[in-house]
Write a structure and sequence with these properties.
Elements (H helix, E strand, L loop, with lengths): L1 E6 L6 E5 L12 H15 L5 E6 L6 E5 L12 H9 L1
Antiparallel strand pairs: 1-2, 3-4
This protein binds zinc ion (2 copies).
C-alpha cells in the first residue's frame, strides 16, 4: 500500500492509503466508490439493470421491490401482472 494524502474524486472522502501509486493526472476513489463503480460496470455488462424500489402496485397493491427502470413518479406504478393485463386490455 502507498501512503497518500488525497481526496476521493467522487465523494470527497479522505484517502490515506492506496494499493497503487497515484499518477496525479487521474482522480482516485475511495474504497466505497471503487466498489460501487465496479458493481455498476458489472451490471451494465450483464442482465438489464434493475432498480431497487419499495412501492405498492397502484392496481392490486402488490409490493414492488424491483423495476427495470428508475421510476420518476412512484405514485402510479403497476406490478408486472397488472402491467401485462393493462397492455392486453
Ligand atoms: Zn468516495
Ligand atoms: Zn398489480
Amino acid at each position: 500500500m502507498f501512503d497518500v494524502d488525497c481526496e476521493c474524486g467522487k465523494c470527497g472522502a479522505k484517502i490515506t492509503q492506496l494499493p497503487f501509486q497515484p499518477s496525479g493526472d487521474r482522480p482516485v476513489y475511495c474504497g466505497d466508490c471503487n466498489r460501487a463503480h465496479r458493481e455498476q460496470r458489472n451490471s451494465d455488462r450483464g442482465e438489464r439493470r434493475m432498480f431497487d424500489v419499495d412501492v405498492a402496485c397502484s392496481g392490486c397493491g402488490t409490493k414492488i421491490t424491483q423495476l427495470p427502470f428508475e421510476p420518476r413518479d412512484t405514485s402510479n406504478l403497476l406490478c408486472k401482472e397488472c402491467y401485462l393485463k393493462n397492455k392486453d386490455a
